[in-house]
Amino acid sequence: MASIISIQNLSKSYQRDSFEIPVLNNLSLEIEEGEFLALMGPSGSGKTTLLNLIAGIDKPSSGKLTVAGTDIAKLNESALAKWRSNNVGFIFQFYNLIPVLTAFENVELPLLLTNLSKAERKKRVELVLSVVGLTDRMYHYPKQLSGGQEQRVAIARAIVTDPTILVADEPTGDLDKNSANEVLTLLDRLNKEFKKTIVMVTHDPASAAKASVKRHLDKGDLV
Amino acid sequence: MKILKLIFKNTLRHKLRTTLTILGIAIAVIAFGILRTVVTAWHVGVDASAANRLITRQAVSFIFPLPVTYKEKIASVAGIEQVTFSTWFQGVYIDKNQFFTRMAVDHETFFSVYPEFLLTKEELENFKNERTATIIGADLAKTYNLSIGDVMTLEGDIYPGTWNFTVRGIYQPRDKATDGTMMAFRWDYVNERMQQEWPERANDVGWYIVKINDPNQAAEISTQIDALFLNSRAETKTETERAFAQGFLSSTSAIIDAMNLISFVIIGIIMLVLGNTMIMAARERTREYAVLKTLGFSAKHIVGLILGESLLISAIGSAIGLFFIYPLIEGIGQVIPKGFFPVFHVESITIVLAVSAAMMIGLIASIFPIQRALKTKIVDGFRFVG
Ligand SMILES: Nc1ncnc2c1ncn2[C@@H]1O[C@H](COP(=O)(O)OP(=O)(O)OP(=O)(O)O)[C@@H](O)[C@H]1O
Ligand SMILES: [Mg+2]
Predict the structure, then answer these.
(1) Structural domain range at position A171
(2) Is residue A153 helix, strand or coil?
(3) Residues B200, B72: one domain?
(4) Does the predicted model carry a pTM greater than 0.90?
């Protein structure tokens, strides 16, 4: 199977005042199409940093980073934004829904950047909300939902554009066991049924157990 | 604009904060409108002055009179079309607190030098044919319910005695800048009585009004006129009507200048209020902007969200302000003494100024939060803890 994400000699450091903080050191990794990868490691090891680079919301300091056929390290700000909206679905630990928008409107948000008509958008939003099992919560606001439900809305928002890859940063980190299981089952289904490539950062071995591949990061190195 | 809905919803997020800001803008627009209206009303006297008219007055002060014999001499200067004169009469009509202008004028020439007072031929003829005739402004006629043929009785103060004048003409002001409350009667009639009752004050006029052919010659002609009377009993000072009006108003102009300044200070203050609201709002939404950017929304959208909200708030605020400004100005107009300001109404330029100032405020208040939202990197936005 072909690599959908190809990372070669990737390094990343942050500038804080006059200090240079190295986070990732010369890291290489191949992720195959359809893979469900769990990225594990202690706090501060650079998991989120690596995920952000893969997802194109941050830029590497050096190295080559090809995702879905595009060398994204070379894209400029606006090309990268367009690339993200076409290729990446994001799931965050704290859901990051817009509080003044309903579940429906939150899921519709990424579609506003497409040429889809209102009717087509509605059809798609309703479809993905049914996939995550929230058809009856369509017109609820985030604060009227439980954490697990909020995260499922966030997953619906992530898949509504039918992206090439899904990235999830500790998607169950803020959930109780049952809700966490629901979310993991959902991700597993998206991987198996819908053939989505998923990169998931997690602390939790039980969560990682759902993944097909596990990798560990420690102090910026893959082990 | 698919983000329009989000702009509206964002505006309603902190209802109290938004409401207070909107009220602040409304009050600022009202205060600005009232102050500007007073300032413009004050300056109407100056603005109404024509560029082709000069005023010749006594060199020391316009309170001192000039001999009526100067008329012919002034008229001899080249470039002058016509010379007329008038005298400040004052007196009391009905009650002391009436401020409208009462003047004795040269009946032959006054209204041709002041074409902004519109009269019919017949009215003008009647004025010239009857020594006790008076011509009054339409606004004055309306206030006192006066019509042609009515007699107005003035109790003289500068010119003592009881004076009866018969209304023979009611002029229409040519434009909004023209005083519609003036009362003019004949100088020769006043002078005739002075000759009998107080001869040493006879044959004097207040000031001359000189209509010139070419406004560009104003300075030259002024110098020539004043040269005629150098070293005479009453030296003159000639200046353009505009300069004269400004001098006349200068005693109170410090207050007017202050009001003028305050009207802009108000704009500045409310800019800070809205700026603060927008900065707080944008700061609270740092994470959301990071989410939107992550999803592929561009700078254009972020600008639209913040600027849109800021403009929406200032638009609602100024709409409310404008809604109240007309009745308020109307009310104030009722309370201040009649004729204190010849013209007191909301100028359209005031509305244009108020609205564009409000929109400018909306624009400027959003600059800083927009800058910050755009500058913040996505990863830093997610790490931001408000
Ligand atoms: N935007 C940033 N600016 C400066 N330093 C950063 C930034 N993002 C991350 N770092 C630093 O990089 C290191 C790795 O951070 P990262 O968030 O990738 O770790 P993590 O493995 O996701 O940890 P956790 O499990 O706690 O989420 C940390 O020392 C962190 O302080
Ligand atoms: Mg992390």
Answers:
(1) 3-214
(2) helix
(3) yes
(4) no
Q: Same domain, yes or no, for B39 and B78?
A: no
CA-proximal residue: ligand 1, atom 26 (nearest):
A43
Per-residue pLDDT, A222 = 82
Q: Does a structural domain hold residue A223?
A: no
Evaluate whether residue B324 is within a structural domain.
yes
For chain A, residues with pLDDT lower than 70 are 1
Nearest residue by C-alpha to atom 22 in ligand 1: A48
Q: How far apart are CA B322 and CA B120, in angstroms?
A: 39
Cβ B211 vs Cβ B81: under 8 Å: yes
ipTM of the complex: 0.94
CA angle at B52 for the pair B50 and B54, rounded to the nearest 5°: 90
Q: Do A112 and B3 touch (CB under 8 A)?
A: yes
- Smallest CA–CA distance, residue B9 to chain A, in Å, is 6
What is the average pLDDT across B175-197? Answer: 90
Q: How many separate domains does chain A show?
A: 1
Cα A150 to chain centroid distance, Å, stands at: 15
- Compare all CA atoms of chain A with the CA of B382 and give the residue at the minimum distance: A96
Which residue of chain B is at minimal alpha-carbon distance from A79? B296
Domain hosting B174: range is 65-233
- What residue in B sits closest to A49 (Cα-Cα)? B379
DSSP calls for B319-351: HHHHHHHHHHHHHHHHHSPTTSSS--S--HHHH
| pLDDT at res. A65 | 94
B299 belongs to a structural domain: yes
Same domain, B110 and B229: yes
| Cβ distance of A112 and B2 shorter than 8 Å | yes
**Residue B287, number of CB atoms within 10 A of its CB:** 19
Q: Look at residue B122 in the predicted model and tell me its pLDDT.
A: 94
> CA of A100 to nearest chain B CA: how many angstroms apart?
6
- Spatial separation of the C-alpha atoms in residues B135 and B127, rounded to whole Å: 7
Contact A90 B295 (CB under 8 A): yes
Q: Which tens digit of pLDDT belongs to each residue from B232-253?
A: 889 999 988 877 766 665 556 6
In a domain, A220, yes or no: no
Instruction: Single out the residue in B175, B199, B233 at which a domain terminates.
Output: B233
| Domain identity same for B291 and B213 | no
- Residues B73 and B18 both lie in one domain: no
Report if residue B346 sits inside a domain.
Answer: yes
Q: What is the mean pLDDT of chain B?
A: 89
Q: Which of B202, B233, B264 is the last residue of a domain?
A: B233
**In chain B, which residues have their Cβ closer than 8 Å to the Cβ of A92?**
382
Pairwise CB contact (< 8 Å): B12 & A100: yes
One-letter amino acid of B213: N
Q: Is B51 within the bounds of a domain? A: no
Query: Which of B1, B4, B44 minimizes the C-alpha distance to B312?
Result: B4
